[in-house]
Amino acid sequence: MRLQDAKALFSEVVNRARDDGPQLVVLPGEDAVVIVSAEAFDRDRERHTGRRLVEALAISPLRDLELERPLVIGRVRDVDL
User: Fold this and answer.
1) Whole domain around residue 21: which residue ranges?
2) Low-confidence stretches of the chain (pLDDT beneath 50)
């Protein structure tokens, strides 16, 4: 759906996201955003907690391997918001 159409029909886009799944909004020549229901967003966010990685490493034959995490110090810059 084009951005101008999504703006004009925002309620419909929200309802479609809730009923039919993610809704893609495009700008000329590029995908801009995907509108998803809060339920889908929460469900997807729960999947990416890192818990599965921790569990996989815990049962790995390499579980006792100690890894060094290098400390990276970089410059911090001010950003005007």
Assistant:
1) 3-59
2) none
